[in-house]
Amino acid sequence: MAEDNISNSSESVISTFEIKNDLQKIIVDAFSLFTNENINTIPTTDLGKVIRHIGCVPTEEELIEFTSLVESQNEPNTVDINVFVPHMEKQIRAFRYKPGTADELLQAFHTLDTESKGSLSVDFMQQALREGDSLDPDDITEAIKTAYDPDFQCIYYDIWIHKLMGKTKTDPYALAANDVALTDRARAAQDGELNRLLLSSENNDDIDPAVQD
């Protein structure tokens, strides 16, 4: 989608979807970047960009599968925010499409960098990203622009990884993990209270009625 079609505000989109948690807010904000004002849909061609903007990295096969889940039946080749958000939230809470850590990415580049130079040529980097099966051509071009060193005409991948990992201000998977932890603690607290009540009831049953009198 052309940049001049990208809305600078998510207010019109947010108003059509009732946000219930921080994770949904991240998803809605990403979706709103690719909509025109007062329009609550995006073309399926922008779906991968929205998902990657959130901080997820699906493979091409996973993206095709996800597209089939959220594509509008009434308006082919479009995705409505009210369908997209719950499906996207479900995938994140299942920790699907999760990107590699900085250490994992660095190790992968070390494997490619057989001469241990700390850098790769532009052509080699483009080929490696294409084979990764998770970036479209526009994403690859943007990644190259971000990492390219014009003085040495190469890409220092440790700098690229640092920039890449810093693109997402809030990690959606960290939010999902935190929600799981909060739910577990709440459940544990409820179980503890239930056990306390049961124990108290058992103790009362054991008291001799004559003693109570």
UniProtKB/TrEMBL annotation:
Source domain of life: Eukaryota
| InterPro entries reported for this sequence | EF-hand-dom_pair
Protein name (Swiss-Prot/TrEMBL): EF-hand domain-containing protein
Instruction: Name the species this protein comes from.
Output: Aphis glycines (Soybean aphid)
